[in-house]
Amino acid sequence: MSRFWSPLVASLSPYVPGEQPKAQLTKLNTNELPWAPSSRALEAIGGANNESLRLYPDPESVDLRAALAKVAGVSSAEVFVGNGSDEVLAHVFRALFQPRRPLLFPDISYSFYPVYAALFGLDYETVPLDDDFAVQLEDYQRPNGGIIFANPNAPTGVVVGAAAIASLLAANPDTVVVVDEAYVDFGGESVVPLIHKFSNLLVVQTLSKSRGLAGLRVGAAFGDAALIEGLQRVKDSFNSYPLDRLAQAGAIAALEDVGWFNDSCQRLIELREWLAAELRDRGFGVLPSAANFLFARPDHGDAAKVFAQLRERGVLVRHFAKPRIDEFLRITVGTREECQCLLDALDDLG
Ligand SMILES: *Cc1c(COP(=O)(O)O)cnc(C)c1O
């Protein structure tokens, strides 16, 4: 606390990211990909590491937006990029949500949403997940200043189908619906194609998870060109150069390496299904996941204790001390060896 802080700063409760430990721990806590990104991406970053760093990067990220547009099957005018999808989301809250009515998002979802709402002075209401921890989109059909949810949801991994999202969009034509597809490549169905049918749909994606580039900070949004223009207006009122030269070069090469991407997603999904079965064998209740993590409840429900016991054994997972989910652990799918470390540590608990 300082008397120099603005009233806004004093009122904030910032997002708390998962720990990035200095010690040698088996790190299954922040949903990073457990293996190296595309070697073509790393080479492109190396190739951009030269005297051209003297110059500012392309403020519009024209080539990167074209690469994203190609992968997504849309036009460049329908693509926005930012310094990680967290920054994209911040601009979305500022540019596209209406302050007159409460924003709606699930009671259990990405914990950055309430943080951005507070930062930008937006009122919000949370909508409970159903008893199976699924987002029930029928429950969002009421007056709102915008709707946002993650699909697959975080930290549950549970997915909703594109048909349900299309119904919501049709029933909610007057405010923007944002679908945060951070994990979609691990088994969800992207609704990017629906942006041509619904001018109020914005889809947010990231290269941090399925492309294995969390350290590069590249996120994107797809939507009607008028929504994208709104985001650009905010971006150019905040930071004209959110993506540096290395990030733009690396991201383009990563998007072009389709072979690496397909193999990596496939391997991850196989590991996820194997790990889920191993956890169920050990008495865990595991929600069906379409993401690169599992949300799992030990049979006795004391997840905080298991979290601490695992940490003592060098395995770091994530526990949220929040109502409804405090009996669960969120476990990132690691390499087979990392998952085995987790399983061995659990067996050691007896
Ligand atoms: C990881 C994550 C993000 C943020 O990703 P960055 O692109 O690394 O900022 C956004 N939304 C959800 C649901 C996430 O899990």
Automatic annotation (TrEMBL):
GO terms for molecular function: histidinol-phosphate transaminase activity. InterPro entries: Aminotrans_II_pyridoxalP_BS (IPR001917), Aminotransferase_I/II_large (IPR004839), HisP_aminotrans (IPR005861), HistidinolP_aminotransfase (IPR050106), PyrdxlP-dep_Trfase (IPR015424), PyrdxlP-dep_Trfase_major (IPR015421), PyrdxlP-dep_Trfase_small (IPR015422). Pathway: Amino-acid biosynthesis; L-histidine biosynthesis; L-histidine from 5-phospho-alpha-D-ribose 1-diphosphate: step 7/9. Pfam families: Aminotran_1_2. It catalyses: L-histidinol phosphate + 2-oxoglutarate = 3-(imidazol-4-yl)-2-oxopropyl phosphate + L-glutamate. Homodimer. This is Histidinol-phosphate aminotransferase. It comes from Candidatus Litorirhabdus singularis. The lineage of its organism: Bacteria, Pseudomonadati, Pseudomonadota, Gammaproteobacteria, Cellvibrionales.
